[in-house]
Amino acid sequence: MRGSASVFVLLFGVVTSVFIGGVVMLATTQYDYMKRNSASEQALAIAEAGVHYYRWHLAHSPQDYTDGTGHTGPYMHDYKDPQGGVIGKYSLVITPPDAGSTIVTISSTGYTEQYTGVKRTITARFGVPSLARYSFLTNANSWYGSGLTVHGRVLSNGGIRQDGINDSIIQSAKTTYTCGSETGCSPTRTRPGVWGAGGPNTLWEFPVPAADFDAISVDFSTMKADAQTRGVYFGASSYGGYHVVFKTDGTADVYEVRTTSAYRGYDAEGTCTNLYQRIGTQTFRGNYSLSTKHIFFFEDTVWIDGTVNGQASVVAAKFPIDSNNEDIWINGNIQYLAKNGAHQLGIIAQRNIYFAKDLPAVFEIDAAMLAQKGKIIRHNYNYGACGVYSNAVRSQLIIYGSLISNQKSYWNWGTTPSSGFTTRDVTYDNHLYLIPPPYFPASGDYEFISWSEDNHL
Predict the structure, then answer these.
(1) Per residue in 34-71, pLDDT tens?
(2) Where are the domains of the chain?
(3) DSSP assignment of 124-186
């Protein structure tokens, strides 16, 4: 019996030892897991610190994508506690913007000194806001008439007469301004910065800081150089200019315009002009894919129409820039294949952007438009001194995108109207704020776009 008891005690001791060993092992494993989990959370915080550091760096050196070193990364940094002790490190990989873009990608990998194998990586994207963050941005007095609905922010350095409908902020840099015939005041009188019969006026703000048009940089030199090396470039034509037709298959046809004919038209500056806008004959010069060609640069007048499948910008500008003026004619609908952010068009004119006379009844433009020196207008084609055309009115104008002009833009004449569009609807494309068409000008500081995280536990 004493032998049996000894075996029982021995078995009990073995079982107890195994149990206690298992508990100790479990506790050790659990403790290690907790420490590793804590290290993982610390690694994430360290990786975030790396992103914040480089955003700060870009605020002080916007064009430096090498962490001040002049060579490629990754770039290692210590992460210290408040007392100056090193508790971890982060490694940065910086991807600079593609040509024609402002988007910087920052990849930051963080880890602690105690658990160097527990790493967390954050990838964040930042971009500089484009000028296409407004539905309208202008450097002159403006008049938004009845029948016009604006969906999106408006900013004018001049005064604004708002007789239409707005569902976003309308801003003027003026407390008051002198309203003249350009905004329907006869005789001339003093008006508030924003006024009129439209609204709601609860969304009107004035005065606000003016947009610095002198600081708006349209880098025509870079655009031309990149068009010559990786895009589409044509010098001055011996004839009328060039015609770009966007196609649903993601390409664009370019024609050289050989002959044109004119309509007589009137603008608000008081001139009747022969406007050579009707394309007669043209010669095919090439078909280009928007998947590889994102900048189209012409040192001549340009006509544009078609369906945009992809991203591109069309520029009309001639060198030397200060002594030349090139215009763009929109002679038919310009529509995106879909309004989902995947398709974008920038239209950049050295001087003016014109809407032609012979347009569809419902005329639509999907684009971010910039008239760098001038304005975006449709002339008066029902003016006695210039000649009267019976078909000068269209039923609707639809703009999806953004309009930026140095001078006052307009396209309607008379209340009815006698020339122009019966109704007008302008809707801001919110995809343009940080991801505009290629090469479209931007200004301001880098802003957050997106982030993602890879876990390396």
Answers:
(1) 676 888 899 999 999 999 999 999 989 989 999 999 99
(2) 2-129+446-456, 217-432
(3) EEEEPPBGGGSSEEESS-EEE-TTEEEES-EEESS-EEE-SEESS-EEES-SEEEE-GGGT-S
